[in-house]
Amino acid sequence: MTESAISQPVSGPSSPLDLFGDEVLADPYPAYAELRALGPAVYAERLNAWVLPRYDSVKAALLDPETFSSVNGLHLNPEGNQWVTAGSVLAADGLEHARLRRVLSKQLAPRAIRDLADSLRARADELVVSLADRDSFDAVTDLAAPYVTGVILELMGLPHVDGSGLVKQVESVFDTFAAPNPRVYAGLPAAQAMFEFLQTVATRDNVSPDSWLGAAHAAADRGEIAEIECVMTMAAYTTAGMDTTIHAIATAVQMLTSDREQWELVRDGKVPYEALFGETLRYEAPIQGFGRRVMRETTVGDATIPEGAQVWLMFGSSGRDEAKWGADADVFDVRRPDAADHLALGFGTHLCAGNHLALMEFDAVFGALARHFPGLAPDPAAPPTRVLNNVLRIWDRVNVLTRP
Ligand code: HEM
Fold first, then answer.
1. Whose CA is nearest to atom 41 of ligand 1?
2. Ligand 1: distance of its center to the CA of 359 in Å?
3. Can you tell me which residues the record assigns to a coiled coil (predicted)?
4. Residue 62 falls within a domain, yes or no?
5. Which one of 234, 244, 290 would you pick to mutate in the ligand 1 pocket, going by the greatest count of ligand atoms within 8 A of its CB?
């Protein structure tokens, strides 16, 4: 399938919006509403791709991987597809996808994650207690980033490795998914640096056999994956499992501390952590979108999308679609009964492999915050600030007061 297959005239609604421009990234939701109003699929001229902004159109595409392929299609630029995700579980279809996904399926199954619950909660408790003598802390750099990085490196089998540089490298990897812009090209060398770092630390003699990497090496020994795929697996799980969860936790802290009633509902156990997790991801998908390659001409609403074209699945927009969520789609409410229907973890074959782990991390972190900082509140002297990223909705800092 070539990338030049899209030289025919566009049929269907189109838009000049640049989804990856600074202005849209700073506050994407008005642009998303504009695109949803145009139709379930809209040709984005500046991206040379069709964007799917509505809940129903994103879900339908996720359920039809034979038409909307992940191979050579996750990034809206050829370099990303070729150098960053090619050969990984994320960018595979069919039997190849099943083969790669099997490597860690046992380790990430609900039962295995339930077995980790005590240690994940103890780790969160220890970290939160270490912040107890402070009047304020940053939920990104003092809490979510060290917690999630520590969890992932330990599970990978690399607890002794300093992974503090990984968070920024993963941010850069996500930048590479967009249509060509300066952030994409700044991200490519950082992605390369991440692979090199992982290749150096993830050697066989460096990891325990009961870790994720140990499982990958065992799969290589059984001939189920190639040796090189051990590092690819590590890279896919590091990319997918770190900044996503870090910023989901930071968003939840930001939303809960800016609305006392919501915090009290969570803190006092009136709603389960699962409801907080679902509503946070619906309200602000950490991964705002991913691409797909169209394998055969297909019609979505009034748009005819030719074979070989690319589409952009707008997870972030799908979470704000009034047709699905009602008139209060832009309101954060942990009582929302159907929040778990969100598409922020994907759906169908590529449904997030780490979804049970991410939920457990939420449970552990917010349980610890509720126990130790019942009065958690925003820090008026240091309002939250963001970092612009092509794909992730991320924070620079979310400062909070421990006892206002
Ligand atoms: C709140 C946190 C998370 C969010 C929002 C998130 C989001 C997503 C999304 C949207 C996909 C689907 C990609 C697609 O359809 O192309 C995905 C897949 C994936 N996620 Fe997550 N993720 C999170 C946490 C994690 C964690 C903790 C891990 C594990 C360490 C993880 C590992 C993966 C993997 C391996 C895939 C690829 C699955 C496949 O292609 O079959 N994720 N994630």
1. 350
2. 12
3. none
4. yes
5. 244
**Residue 5 counted as domain residue:** no
pLDDT at position 3 is 45
Section 372-380 average pLDDT: 97
Q: Please report which confidence band the pLDDT of residue 225 belongs to, taking 50, 70 and 90 as the band edges.
A: very high
Residue 354 beta carbon below 6 angstroms from any ligand 1 atom: yes
What domain range includes position 65? Answer: 14-371+380-401
Task: Give me the mean pLDDT over the 350-369 stretch.
Answer: 98
3-state secondary structure the chain: CCCCCCCCCCECCEECCCCCCHHHHHCCHHHHHHHHHHCCCEEECCCCEEEECCHHHHHHHHCCCCCEECCCCCCCCHHHHHHCCCCCHHHCCHHHHHHHHHCCHHHHCHHHHHHHHHHHHHHHHHHHHHCCCCCEEEHHHHHHHHHHHHHHHHHHCCCCCCCCCHHHHHHHHHHCCCCCCHHHHHHHHHHHHHHHHHHHHCCHHHCCCCCHHHHHHHHHHCCCCCCHHHHHHHHHHHHHHCHHHHHHHHHHHHHHHCCHHHHHHHHCCCCCHHHHHHHHHHHCCCECCEEEEECCCEEECCEEECCCCEEEECHHHHCCCHHHHCCCCCCCCCCCCCHHHCCECECHHHCCCCHHHHHHHHHHHHHHHHHHCCCCEECCCCCCEEECCCCECEEEECEEECCC
Q: For residue 284, tell me if it sits in a domain.
A: yes
Reported as a single tens digit per residue, the pLDDT across 308-345 is: 999 999 999 999 999 999 999 999 999 999 999 999 99
- Ligand 1 pocket, residue 89 CB under 6 Å: yes
pLDDT band at 9 (very low <50, low <70, confident <90, very high): low
> Would residue 309 count as lying in a domain?
yes
The CATH code of the domain that includes 223 is 1.10.630.10
Q: What is the pLDDT of residues 39-93, one digit of tens each?
A: 999 999 999 999 999 999 999 999 999 999 999 999 999 999 999 999 999 999 9
Number of independent structural domains in the chain: 1
- Is the pLDDT assigned to residue 382 strictly greater than 90? yes
